[in-house]
Amino acid sequence: MRRILADLSLLLLAMGLLACGPAGDDDDASDDDDAVDVCADYETEGEWEDLDEDQRRLFMECEVVPEMRDLFQEFDADEYSNFSCDTCHGADREEVDHEMPNGLEELPMGGFPFSQSDDPEEAAYGEFMEQEVLGAMQDLLVRSSDFQDPEFFGCYGCHE
C-alpha cells in the first residue's frame, strides 16, 4: 500500500502534458541557471486549460515543481532529495509526451481516506496527500475540491 500512496503522491504532481524542459534533460529544469532566470521574471499567463505547450512547460517549471519539491522534501527529505520532472512523469516522459499516469500503480477504489489507515506509514502518506498535495494542486490548477463541481480535481485526476 505504501507503494500505491507513494505513486499517488508522484502522480498528482504530473498534471502537465509538457511539464519540463527539452528532451534528454533529466535534471529538474528549475535547477539550471537559465531556468532560474526564466522563472525570476515569470508571471502566470492564465488558467491551465488556456495555456499553450510553452506556457504549460513554464508553469510547471516555475510554479508547480518548486512548490511540490518543497512539500515533498519537507515530508521526506531523503526519499525526495532528487525531486525532478522524472519524479512524476517518469524517466521516459518525453517518449510518452508527459501523459499521465505513466507506469505508476493504479489507485485502488477503496480505502479512502488513506489518512485513517491502520498502517502508520500509509496513514502518514495519506494525510500528506490529502492535506498538502491535493489542495496545493487544486490551487495551482485553479480547480475545485467540491466533488459536485464540474471543475473538481481529486485523486483520480491523475489515477486511472
Arithmetic mean pLDDT: 75
End-to-end separation in angstroms reads 16 Å
Q: What's the shape?
A: globular
- Characterize the biggest β-sheet: none
- Rg for CA atoms: 15 Å
The total strand number stands at 0
Overall number of structural domains: 1
Please identify the structural class as seen in this structure.
Answer: mainly alpha
What fraction of residues sit in β-strands? under 5%
Can you walk through the features of this model?
By secondary structure, the protein is mainly alpha-helical. It has one domain. Helices cover 43% and strands 0% of the residues. The protein contains five helices and no strands. The longest helix has 23 residues. The protein is globular.
List keywords for this structure.
about 160 residues, mainly alpha, 5 helices, about 0% strand
Show the helix and strand layout:
Blueprint: H1 2-12, H2 33-40, H3 53-75, H4 85-89, H5 120-141
Helix pairs in contact: 1-5, 2-3, 3-5
